[in-house]
Amino acid sequence: MGRSFLTRGLLFSLALFLVLAGCAQSGGKGNGGSENGGAEPSGERSKVSMVYWPGPESDAMQKVIDAYNAGQGKTDGVEVEMVLLSRDGTYEREAAMMSSNSDEVDMYFTASYIIGQHAPYLDSLNGKVKFDNYLPSSVDSLTVGGETLAVPMDVSNHFLFYRKDLIDQLLSDAAWQAKYKEISQRVLGRELAPKDPAEWNWDDFVAAAAFFSKEYNADSPTKYGTALQLKNLIFNVMIWDDVLYSNGGGWLDNQGAPQFTSDAAKKAMDIYRTIYEGKMTSPNASVAEYPETQAALQSGGAAFAIQWGAAYNELNDPERSPDVAGKIAVAPIPGDHKTHVHSLGVGLNKYAKNKEGALKWMNYLTTAEAMNIYAQNGGIPPIAEVLNANADKNAVLPLIAEHVDKYGYSVPIMAETQQILIVLAEKLSAAWVGQADTESALAEAQEQISNLLKK
Amino acid sequence: MLSSDKAAKWILSAPLLLFYVLMVLFPAGYAVYLSVHDISLGRTTSDFNGLANYWKILRDGNFWHSIGFTLKYTVIVTAAELVLGCLLALLFDRAFPGKRVLLSAVLLPIMVAPSLMGVMYRLLLNEHNGVATYVFSKLGLEINLFDPDVVVPLLIVLDVIQWVPFTFLIMYSGLQSVDKGLAEAAAVDGASYARTMLQIILPVITPIIFIAAFLRGIDAFRTFDVIYVLTNGGPGNVSKTASIFIYEMAFKSGNIGTAAASSVIIALFLLALIPFFIRRLGNA
Predict the structure, then answer these.
(1) Shared domain check, A425 and A394
(2) Which residue has the higher pLDDT, A15 or A205?
(3) Which residue range forms the structural domain that includes residue A188?
């Protein structure tokens, strides 16, 4: 009895071990559950594996990969395969791979705000890939210490999105204009006349926010004037940076020292604080980011907002935004019109097995053919010629080309960039919503960032 | 040579022991290794730095703030969930029409992944297009649930909604194992329902309550998903839990060594509580 039990126990344990080992093996081959984007690599061509961001970006990239694998890839002797990690956890998983000097993938997905951290794990592309066609700020935003480390694939910037129908009425209706003057006097201490949003300064922004808020104007067609994004999030700091830079400020002075206690920084904080405490934006803005701002504009809850360029298509789509489709226009950021620019891109893994193949693929990616396919399928490549040529697919593309070229700025790209964004998000988000004193928040941010940069 | 019985015990335990070594001991050991090295994502080398990471974290006000918030959050939600779970269990500890259907409905929230729950709450409570907000407005209630002064109580309420079914399930199971004769004898002696529950039934299920408190407390201390999705620890760091602090330290700031040191400190703190619970369970 005992021996038979022992034998059964041995067999059971062995079976369980084999099952677990089999699961681990198949999980590893799938890259932790990711999907492989292309066909099984042929034996004649070398394989290049590239991490990419799941979502609209990867949908567009798959078309480019298919075209390459069916065309130039044959000439190059390369077959590209996309590796998809979870959208929210891509950078975290890449961090684990990078820190172990993994050669599992040939190319990493990266972005301006994190490329400083990725820099030690990426090869320089200087002299290996040509970037002549690209918008300069997009290449700059992926360059660290003079070395360009990634091919820009998508460019992100901001616009002032506004309800054209409401602004047109404001500019033509005498009663509205009289009310506007009265409200601006109350909020800003002086009378302002309504202007076209393309000419706004920040006082106009605040005055219009008050005019279109029920708090100041019971007859306002919208509940709030604007929709601020005040959640503790680095992407919301990027929007606040527009206010900072458009008031003549910036992250670092000419000596490379942080300047978050500058007058421009205080002005930028005051603008946010005035709007939030004045109820010109929703109190729920404290947890708002891109989707909440979209909801505010789509529902007619807000008259205007600073929002990411990618929002344009959805806001003017009759199916997805029936209440406001056709009524949304864009203008430059008020003041000096500075718009944050960051790029998403793909870099060459320093430990890649197939660098040669990856570089061939990267050089294809920089061609107008590849970028046209990308743009036609939803991507926003930072090449002016491509953006202008695809206006029929997405009407905002030529505007992105124009604004990024004329008004685009990139925050300093260094190893500490993401950490600085995190510090700013934490310190400033509390002050934006009145949970902390503005001057103290800026002073603490200044001190922490100074310490960060000294290391 | 081992007897057949002893050998059988080792062999049958082998898969679990292997799992424990691979999934618990090795990661814990590796975390301790990382915690004594200066290792970050921005550098390709790592240097042994002794207890420097621990010293840095112990002097970090943000770390202590996150611990303080997490402790308060844990105590409040655990207490609320124990009380409500117990009351719900007592309510269900009788026959009534539709009990089975209602029981299934009560358990629904724990079937949903916490991160998905966070997304659902975010959509439901959206001021401009959320269903809950719409209903409130039709009832004449203008509530801004994400107002900074209200957001932490909101997070507590949302946690209670999701996890009361968990404590209810544990205590309901415990009640099923109580000898019905105890309550009947008390009734015969003229004891009221409340007195029977407080002085007879609850003392009997005290070990069950401790188990529920322990499990729920540990889980609440590790809370990440819902808070991360809804507030990301904000505004500022008002709702930043220890888990979010460590996550940001490791994957946003790239400071692997200090994140590992934070994890070790918290693990040691929680480990210190285990003997207390084991003693209480043993005494009960």
Answers:
(1) no
(2) A205
(3) 158-339+416-454
User: Domain count of chain A?
Assistant: 2
Q: Are A222 and A302 in contact (CB under 8 A)?
A: yes
Question: Among A95, A69, A93, A100, which Cα is nearest to A82's?
Answer: A69
Name the least confident of A43-47, A97-101, B249-253.
A43-47
Helix/strand/coil (H, E, C) string of A44-99? Answer: CCEEEEEEECCCHHHHHHHHHHHHHHHCHHHHHCEEEEEEECCCCCHHHHHHHHHH
List alpha helices for A164-257, DSSP H: 164-172, 174-188, 202-211, 234-245
Indicate the range of A365-374, A434-443, B143-152, B238-247 predicted with least confidence. Answer: B143-152
- Same-domain check for residues A308 and A450: yes
Neighbours of A74 (CB within 10 A): 14
Identify all chain A residues contacting B238, using CB atoms and an 8 Å cutoff. Answer: 430, 435
Q: Which residues of B touch A (CB under 8 A)?
A: 3-5, 7-8, 11-12, 14-15, 18-19, 39, 41-44, 62, 122, 126-129, 144-148, 151, 230-238, 240, 248, 250-254, 256
Confidence bin at B71 (pLDDT 50/70/90): very high
pLDDT at residue A6 greater than cutoff 60: no
How distant is the Cα of A177 from the closest Cα of chain B, in angstroms? 27
**What are the beta bridge partners of residue A349?**
A122
For the domain bounded by B60-253, which CATH number is listed? 1.10.3720.10
Task: Assess if residue A354 is contained within a domain.
Answer: yes
Reported pTM: 0.85
A12 within a domain of the structure (yes/no): no
Per-residue pLDDT, averaged over B111-128, amounts to: 90
Average pLDDT over chain A reads: 90
Residue window 242-281, chain A: list those with CB within 8 Å of chain B: none
Residues A307, A184 share a domain: yes
- Tokens 């093996």 label which residue? A25
What distances in angstroms separate CA B98 from CA A136, A328, B102, B167, B277, one per listed residue?
68, 52, 6, 21, 37
pLDDT, average across residues B259-282? 86
Assess contact for A78 and A357: CB atoms under 8 A: yes
Portion 144-183 of A in contact with B at CB < 8 A? none
Does residue A29 fall inside a structural domain?
no
Same-domain pairing of A186 and A146: no
**A366 and A151 Cβ atoms separated by less than 8 Å:** yes
**Which one of A10, A230, A422 has the shortest CB-CB distance to B252?**
A422
- The two structure tokens encoding residue A178: 């009289």
Of A376, A392, A409, which one is at a domain's C-terminal end?
A409
Residue A362 near residue A61 (C-beta atoms within 8 A): no
CATH number at residue A438: 3.40.190.10
Q: Indicate if A441 and A292 belong to the same structural domain.
A: yes
Query: A400 and A274, same structural domain?
Result: no
What residues 27-86 of chain A have any CB closer than 8 A to a CB of chain B? Answer: none
Asked, for residue A143, whether it belongs to a domain, the answer is yes
A439 shares a domain with A329: yes
Cα–Cα distance, B155 to B240 (Å, whole number): 11
Q: Which residues are paired to A155 by β-bridges?
A: A343
Residue pair A404/A157 in contact (Cβ under 8 Å)? The answer is yes
Q: How far is B52 from chain A (nearest CA, A)?
A: 15
Rounded to whole angstroms, how far apart are CA atoms A410 and B269?
43
Q: Are A302 and A394 contained in the same domain?
A: no
> Does B235 sit behind a cis peptide bond, omega within 30 degrees of 0 on the bond before it?
yes
Give residue B80's pLDDT. Answer: 97
Q: Rounded distance, CA A165 to CA B258, Å?
A: 53
**What is the rounded (10 degree) CA torsion for A420, A425, A429, A431?**
-10
CB contacts, 8 Å: B231 with chain A? 231-232, 286-287
